[in-house]
Structure formats: C-alpha cells, structure tokens
Amino acid sequence: MPVIFQLSKNEIRIIVWGAICKLISDWETSIDEMVFNEQIATGSFRGRFPVDDELCAIMQQMQAQGHIAPYYGVGGSRGACVYQLHRIGSGYSIHVKNTVALESTEFVDPTAGVPREGLIPQIQTWIATKLSIGEGVKPQLIFKINGKELQNLRAWAHWNERQAATSRYIYEFGRVAMGHLGFTVQVTDTLNNEQINVTDYASW
Predict the structure, then answer these.
(1) For the stretch 180-189, what's the b/e string if a residue is b when 16 or more beta carbons lie within 10 angstroms of its beta carbon?
(2) Closest by Cα among 179, 170, 177 to 199
(3) Which end of the chain has fewer surrounding CB within 10 Å, N or C?
(4) What is the pLDDT of residue 58?
C-alpha cells in the first residue's frame, strides 16, 4: 500500500512511499520554486520572509546552479508544509499545505475504497500505467510519534489505541527544524470533534 500505518509499543509510524510520495514532492517543489523566485525578484514573498542583499546573492548563486532554496525563516530550513493524513476506506487522504504560500492540495491513496482482495492489482496497475517514477526509485515520507509525544497522546482522554489506524483520527505533522521528530504533531478525534497538540516543545 502507498501509505502504511504501523503501531508498536514505543511508536506510531506512518510511511508514505512510492508514486504518491513523488507527487507530493513534486507539488512541494513547485510551491518552493514560486516562493524562491519571488524572494529573489522582490526581496520577500508577498511582503513576508524578507531576504537581505547578502542572502539574496547566495540564493541567486543557488538558482544559477539549479537549486531551489526558499527562505522560510530560521525554523523553516526543512520546509513550510503541514501534512494531514486521514484514513478513508482501505487507504488515506493526504492534505498538504504550504503555510507560507497558503497553497494547499490533496492526494488520495488509490487504494482508498478498494476491497482488500483487490488491493494488489489496483496498486500495480495504478503505478505502472499512470505514475511510474522509475525502477528502483522509492521516495518516502516518514511521520513518527514516539517518546514524550506518544506519552502525551496516550494520556489524552479521547485516545483509543484500538482505533488508532481507523478513520476516527486525523494525524497532522508540521515541518520544523527543531525537536527530535522534525515535526509538530497534532491529532484530531473526529468522533468527539476534539484536537490535541502532543508536540514536546520543552525538548526544543
């Protein structure tokens, strides 16, 4: 499956891989390029995240070398995207938002809604005919909840671990350059319309 949910004693791990991950990466790059080009051309992005002359010169050099490196502030060196993952049928919907550009999109795991006995041929056909990314290429996004974040989640009154991999919960991960996970972590309980931020900010 393009999205794999793993639950163990010490960790929740969600792996997004293959062609759907490549689509997400391509979308992120297109938004990064838009921000990057505007910062070089105007010195900021829509008046936010200004770059001084020294930084702009460095960015111009990177652009000449074919690199895309927008400035998202001190804490945004890993990017400015937030990812929401929600179980739908047999698969997942993945909503991605660039919090600087305020652009968003949604990707749907092609196995969503497909009966379990039909998963393997569905995946093979989808990847082979529509979204082939080249033999041996396996891009991955790995989202984890462990340590203090997992403790915080398990202490939440609205957490039911037996339903962790069901449509009851929406998992949200925001890229940051700090913390041991590299993401902020929020979980929404759709049954009770409650949300918790389990991020261990004290470790930053």
Answers:
(1) ebebbbbbbb
(2) 179
(3) C
(4) 93
Q: How is residue 33 written in tokens?
A: 């390029």
Distance of CA 112 to the CA centre of its chain: 18
Q: Check if the beta carbon of residue 96 is closer than 8 Å to that of residue 105.
A: yes
What is the three-class DSSP state of 40? helix
Q: What φ, ψ does residue 71 adopt, rounded to 5°? A: -95, 115
The mean pLDDT values, 10 residues at a time, for the chain of 204 residues are: 89 91 92 95 92 92 92 76 93 93 88 47 38 50 95 98 96 89 94 97 86
Q: Which two tokens stand for residue 179?
A: 């913390």
Answer whether 182's CB lies under 8 Å from 76's CB.
Answer: no
The secondary structure of 53-102 as a DSSP string is HHHHHHHHHHHHTT-------GGGTT-SEEEEEEEETTEEEEEEEETTTT
Determine if the pTM surpasses 0.85: no
